[in-house]
């Protein structure tokens, strides 16, 4: 019985997840076919898929995808490095933490899209526009997580490190960083999603080259199916990004309570 | 024998939030090189405060502590602490071997020297086979062995133990007590062992320092005239053990009732 139960349990979640996708696709297929929605505005799902396969054959599509992923990765990398460095430094110095906390709370909720007029004035529809929006949005996600992480160092672990006379750098490298790592990974996952949203937004609104601009062009030229196909593909990128972040999490946090299997 | 740890007129008053609490009033005692001394007292007697002051983790409000003739102002080089909370004192992201190695790395020892000390320490606490496990994969008693191995490998001139066995079961506790006696014999290290368990203090120590209630002073310095070879069954059932144990027990009861020597 139990021998059978294990694989059933194991496949249950992915199987249900897949079922959800199939159902959603079936609804999108059925709505226009049954005439409940005008298919000029919502083509059936199968036609979106066909539209997507046609896209996959075009060189422009792959160029745009490369531009999107490139901008996303670069912006994310800058936000990660800046967020981690600033977080560790601010979090390690109580005075700095006290001075900056109100400023951070003020700047953090400002939506990145509110900066669009500003970046358009400075950089126009070039890559730096997208980068600024991405970095601004993703940086806070990382910074706040890292600040939580640095504050989470166990006092007993801190005492242990102090009693063995760890140097300041030794404490950061061997105590603060491993404690903060789970938070960094969470920050990465949040930032990766936000960065993708801002990259597409910058392309769509400002016209920075990439898939977002392709969507905008398709939409304004009335190519409804193509528009949906591209949107669908952006969604797939989002899922892939999240899956990638989770894989990174599993690998780096083998020892953490959220991943490990304890003896007891 | 030379005095290795000299505590003279130690006082500690906690201040903050507009009130002050006098935890330790006046503690004076000496520990000679190679001794095994236990400190016992009623709960809330400031045992942990005392130990944190000696280990340099906590600033004192008065008096002098010196280790090997050098005043203690921060965690001193020749001291290692075994904390009660072994589960939190060990670094969960490191293996057993890496946990023992980290303080040696911070001390600046070379690779081969570290390896030799780690192997010796693991052998001494009987954990050869668990070197590559993570601490959380081990039982509580084994985790505390790792913490002891880490302290022993550091080769301190004084080993401080803060109620190290308060959180393990009775059988494991007896094993660990014998381990401490054996390591003390083998390595010739000076041990200061803080406990709330009267039997444990008499079984382990050559002397038992009994503390008063708060603000703490020393109630009595009780010599333990028991044979050097001790075993859980024979020693604990001997008449001499019972006599010393009864005496210490009465002292602790007096301390609880607020009895203080010379009206201090």
TrEMBL record, chain A:
ABC transmembrane type-1 domain residues: 65-245
Domain of life (superkingdom): Bacteria
Main localization category: membrane
Keyword Coiled coil (UniProt): no
Transmembrane segments: 72-94, 106-124, 130-150, 171-198, 227-245
GO cellular component terms given for this protein: plasma membrane
Location(s), subcellular: Cell membrane
Keyword Disulfide bond listed: no
Alphabetical keyword list: Cell membrane, Membrane, Transmembrane, Transmembrane helix, Transport
Alphabetized InterPro entries for the sequence: MetI-like, MetI-like_sf
Membrane topology: Multi-pass membrane protein
Pfam family, one: BPD_transp_1
GO biological process: transmembrane transport
Family: Belongs to the binding-protein-dependent transport system permease family.
Protein name: Nitrate ABC transporter permease
TrEMBL record, chain B:
Keyword Transmembrane among record annotations: no
InterPro entries membership: AAA+_ATPase, ABC_transporter-like_ATP-bd, ABC_transporter-like_CS, ABC_transporter_ATP-bind, P-loop_NTPase
Keywords: ATP-binding, Nucleotide-binding, Transport
Molecular function in Gene Ontology: ATP binding; ATP hydrolysis activity
Lineage top rank: taxon: Bacteria
Residue ranges constituting the ABC transporter domain according to the UniProt record: 5-238
Keyword Transport in record: yes
UniProt protein name: ABC transporter
Species this protein is from: Actinoplanes siamensis
UniProt lineage: Bacteria, Bacillati, Actinomycetota, Actinomycetes, Micromonosporales
